[in-house]
Amino acid sequence: MTKICCTCKRMQPLSDFNKSKHVKGGYARRCKECRRTERRRAVTLRTREYHRNWHLRSYYGINAEEYDRILIAQKGRCAICGKEPGKFRFRVDHDHACCPGEKSCGNCIRGLLCMSCNLALERIDNIPDWSERARRYLLKKFVSPENGQPELEG
Fold first, then answer.
1. Residue 153: pLDDT over 70
2. pLDDT (mean) for 13-29
3. Alpha-carbon distance 129 to 123, whole Å?
4. Which residues contact 29 (CB under 8 A, 6 or more apart)?
5. How far, in Å, CA of 85 to CA of 112, rounded?
6. CA distances from 73 to 78, 79, 81, 98, 106 (A)
């Protein structure tokens, strides 16, 4: 005996379907493989969303709705450079003077930043005179690869 799965539309033997008291004929409408695939997809989505909420709550004292509200207030762009999010979500920036370390109380959140701006702020905060040293570096003459001598700019 065979049956057609309502999801993949393939004709399969009844052994590929779970028994069910709730369906006429005594077998589930979806085959075991389609049911397993759907369950995995649903669990993966729930797990990903759960982890995101857990991370925002435990590290920054906010939930996903508050993160989204901040993002909407920033018009969906980085608070510093105005770039739209790429492959990764924006980082939550908080005042380290209020809450040193990675975790925040939730009251000192300044905004959402792209990875580049977040790393730049981290360097400015953690390395004395970093911005001044970076400026001086950019003004230096280039070193020639052939003789190791500085080349003139321009």
1. no
2. 91
3. 9
4. 5, 6, 23
5. 10
6. 11, 10, 15, 23, 17
For 146, the 3-state DSSP assignment is: coil
**If you average pLDDT over residues 56-61, what whole number do you get?**
91
H or E element, residue 123: helix 115-126
If you average pLDDT over residues 120-134, what whole number do you get?
86
Phi, psi of 2 (to 5 degrees): -130, 170
**In 3-state terms, the chain is what percent helix, strand and coil (to 5)?**
40, 20, 40
What residues does each domain of the chain span? 61-151
pTM exceeding 0.70:
no
3-state class (DSSP) for residue 83: coil
Please give the CATH number for the structural domain made up of 61-151.
Answer: 3.40.1800.10
